[in-house]
Backbone:
């Protein structure tokens, strides 16, 4: 598959010096990114696309093959004359990025290879808010160890771990500043995990990072979702609250301190329902899961049973909608309209190419899209909603962990030379193709 | 002065190939940007900062001196030993960027040199909405010609013109799609100006561009305002409406189609005042100039006289506030609080390091800041307002034209080689310093 890597979680780009060694590394990265973004290519095609000369491309490709990051394809005849050329393509199999998500009632870990193929994915139920953070970190470390062992079993080099948490995260310090739904405050996640993973990290030194789940979900969509490669997108996660992640100009908009995307408490109506934040009519009182349930069912309705799992609850709602239950359909129509009212603010402000509905919005999307789009047409100032389309996430609840794994893989796209040369049998680069 | 150039109005950065000629140009640009951002430096200091070797830096500096973009400073002794070194610094004098603003009741043109020093600035009153766009473009062309002639008179090479308009602008096409306050729709500004400036453009071929005024104002603040160099900032322009410009990660957030920053119609209260857009309680009904006046004075009050100029009106309001007029103070307090309610939404979404109040907000800022900050403290989710400070613009109504001129100068920072070698007397680069 085609992947769309994007710079992540690091200080934003500035002009870089270019001495000879740096040029080589930067060109290695250029070719690898190019193959990641554009798929299989002949050496001549890479040269034409990147402006590098053919001999340089052949040498760079040979090094990337040696590092196990690129493979030769089948010979083909590009035109009527000349020797048959061989395309080269990203070889995902040698490195793995690990994404872990900590959420209210589950942990997920995923390993993606360089082509975003899933090598490992595991979800475990955990009542996170009821546990001390130390116990949760024990469980996270256990799940991460399993992911690393799976990499070892497959002879895959793990290159990084990114933990997604619904929280205000100090990315630079590796600390969760505040996660209201988890009841965490000032939890040093990176240090805590590094302390618990000294064994595996000694064997596979790699960075551990922690970031906001909505931001990572946006990265996941940008890397491998239905709108992959879209340079300007907003991802909205529907859960207990509603969070936003923004990709702008192909880069994550993290904000000055990484605290971007807090959109749940946009006050849409000072006379609206009471919110947990103490105000009334916040966006999430209207479109968060609790708000949707309040509209769709009474408190003693089975669908409101707190013991119900997330998937079961959504299945019940969807089933009622499918069978034409009036109250459910009305509720979803109001949630869809509420999504449009809030999303119009975001679209007017940042003019994205796409808004992706994730989390529970994706599950119930077919009932939300119509009323949402009607509000957008009425409220977005730019003609034709500013060229923005609304899509349902194809990743659903997996977007954040996938985004985390993709973020970890960025290290390889930034500097392919971090992956050691695997093969002594250096592939000859004769400049063919 | 120190300037903070930032990429503008062009497709966002992606990995670039680096062959030898490209490396030279990219390194020229690197050194020029470095001097622009950091001020005067020794060659050794540039080498240390950029990672380039000293001989390369000397050769690059020599070329930049030849192109008139860098000058030698006075000799100094960096330490106790060694030959005295000479610092080098940006030499702004040889090139000029032209910024033009078209607004409801005036046109402005400004010429800035490479150090953002003002070489020329002229404002002419014009009742733009009452004129056909053709007539306005005639006036804009006349003012731009005057700016170009001033460049000629000073032996300054004009490198571009950027026109700021309060409008939805199709930057790529050079067309104003819709400017409600000017009553413009689908006006081909770039073509119209190029047609009117064939003479000057034949002598000085240079790009003409058009962009949204709030976006350019944000660039102006980033380049030369009180928060210059701040990588993440939001600029709010107070006028008839309220517009936002966003700098994110040091780059303008233009959006997918350049339609970002439309924040005036965020609906803060469905039960609020009627807005020109047909809804109620939009942000600009509360904080736009008309909303402020409605609070501060009756319709027959002299301050509400439509014949009054902008500056006079603001002087009267400020004077009343200074003398403690209760109604005026109450009005400004409510406008300040309204600013806080709306700005909290933007801050929660993009987590800027600074919000800059421009336009009329800057004039009356001392009365707005207190109540605004109180609302922000109550409404921004991240602790300590997410590390965001609120500042009054030091550029005021000049921010957009300054931003336009800075945008035009970016061409030089991107590729210093567009400026021809001026001096046959090549300055020797002996690697001293």
Residues:
């Amino acid at each position: 598959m085609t992947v769309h890597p994007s710079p992540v979680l690091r200080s934003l780009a500035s002009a870089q010096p270019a001495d000879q060694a740096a040029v080589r590394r930067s060109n290695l990265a250029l070719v690898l990114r190019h193959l990641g973004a554009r798929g299989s290519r002949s050496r001549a095609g890479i040269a034409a696309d990147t402006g590098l000369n053919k001999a340089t491309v052949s040498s760079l490709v040979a090094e990337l093959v040696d590092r196990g990051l690129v493979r030769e394809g089948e010979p083909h005849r590009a035109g009527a004359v000349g020797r048959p050329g061989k395309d080269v393509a990203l070889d995902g199999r040698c490195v793995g990025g690990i994404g872990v998500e900590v959420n209210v009632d589950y942990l997920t870990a995923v390993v993606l290879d360089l082509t975003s193929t899933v090598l490992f994915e595991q979800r475990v139920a955990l009542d996170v808010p009821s546990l001390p953070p130390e116990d949760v970190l024990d469980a996270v470390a256990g799940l991460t160890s399993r992911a690393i062992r799976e990499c070892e079993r497959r002879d895959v080099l793990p290159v990084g771990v990114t933990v997604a948490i619904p929280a205000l995260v100090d990315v630079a310090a590796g600390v969760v500043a505040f996660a209201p739904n988890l009841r965490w405050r000032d939890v040093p996640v990176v240090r805590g995990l590094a302390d618990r993973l000294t064994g595996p990290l000694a064997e596979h030194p790699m960075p551990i990072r922690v970031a906001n789940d909505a931001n990572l979900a946006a990265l996941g969509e940008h890397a491998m979702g239905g709108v992959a490669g879209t340079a300007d997108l907003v991802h909205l996660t529907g859960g207990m609250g509603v969070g936003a992640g923004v990709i702008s100009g192909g880069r994550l908009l993290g904000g000055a301190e990484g605290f971007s995307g807090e959109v749940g408490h946009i006050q849409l109506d000072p006379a609206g329902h009471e919110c947990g934040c103490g105000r009334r009519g916040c966006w999430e009182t209207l479109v968060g899961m609790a708000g949707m349930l309040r509209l769709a069912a009474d408190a003693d309705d089975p669908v409101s049973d707190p013991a119900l799992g997330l998937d079961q609850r959504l299945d019940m709602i969807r089933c009622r909608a499918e069978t034409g239950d009036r109250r459910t359909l009305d509720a979803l129509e109001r949630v869809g309209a509420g999504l449009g009212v809030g999303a119009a603010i975001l679209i007017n402000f940042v003019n994205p190419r796409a808004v992706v509905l994730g989390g529970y919005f994706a599950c119930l999307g077919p009932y939300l899209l119509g009323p949402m789009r009607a509000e957008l047409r009425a409220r977005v100032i730019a003609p034709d909603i500013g060229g923005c389309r609304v899509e349902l996430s194809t990743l659903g609840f997996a977007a954040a962990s996938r985004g985390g794994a993709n973020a970890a893989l960025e290290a390889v796209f930034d500097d392919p030379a971090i992956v050691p040369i695997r093969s002594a049998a250096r592939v000859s680069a004769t400049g063919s193709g």
Summary: Chain B has a mean pLDDT of 89. Residues 155 and 377 of chain B are 51 Å apart (CA to CA). Chain B is about 40% helix and 20% strand.
